[in-house]
């Protein structure tokens, strides 16, 4: 990787407040607003016996989420559709809203997919992926010549 040097023109300085505003402004829109096609954030933890995946999926129900494993790929997806109709006098207004997401994770041979469990509660999907009992840590010692 080549180092890249950034040179500002002489006399060009951004006030710290303006710099802070320019750096924070995009995050206002990216952190709080979810649009169709966005994906939920995931926490993955590992211990000696298993992996634990936690996905925040507010606004979805258990029936709207699908979990599949195919060819070493764990895919979690969800889709929700809402519609609303209002009639006021001669005017009829119909609004449709659709949200979906899809997250995929590579599963290796160390995971016992037959023992996997999933639980959905209060907008949180929790998955337990147990490790196979014969799976040993990939620790290799390399001798120095």
How would you explain this protein's 3D organization?
- By secondary structure, the protein is mainly beta.
- It has one helix at 16-32; strands at 42-46, 50-56, 65-70, 73-88, 91-106, 117-121, 124-130.
- The protein has a 4-stranded antiparallel sheet with strand order 1-2-7-6, with no helix packed on it. Strands 3-4-5 form a 3-stranded antiparallel sheet, with no helix packed on it.
- Strand 6 (117-121) and strand 7 (124-130) form a beta hairpin.
- The longest helix is centred in the first third of the chain and has 17 residues, at 16-32.
- The two termini are 30 Å apart.
- Residues 4-18 and 20-37 have low confidence and may be disordered.
């Amino acid at each position: 990787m080549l180092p890249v040097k950034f040179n500002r023109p002489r006399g060009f300085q951004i006030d710290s407040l303006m710099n802070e505003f320019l750096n924070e402004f995009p995050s206002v829109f990216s952190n709080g607003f979810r649009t169709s096609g966005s994906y939920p954030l995931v926490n993955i933890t590992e211990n000696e016996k298993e992996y634990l995946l936690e996905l925040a999926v507010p606004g979805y129900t258990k029936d709207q989420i699908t979990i599949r494993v195919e060819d070493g790929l764990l895919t979690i997806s969800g889709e929700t559709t809402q519609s609303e109709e209002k009639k006021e006098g001669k005017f009829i207004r119909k609004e449709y809203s659709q949200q979906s997401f899809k997250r995929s994770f590579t599963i290796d041979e160390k995971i016992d997919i037959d023992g996997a469990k999933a639980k959905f509660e209060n907008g949180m999907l929790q998955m337990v992926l147990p490790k196979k009992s014969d799976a040993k840590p990939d620790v290799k010692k390399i001798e120095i010549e």
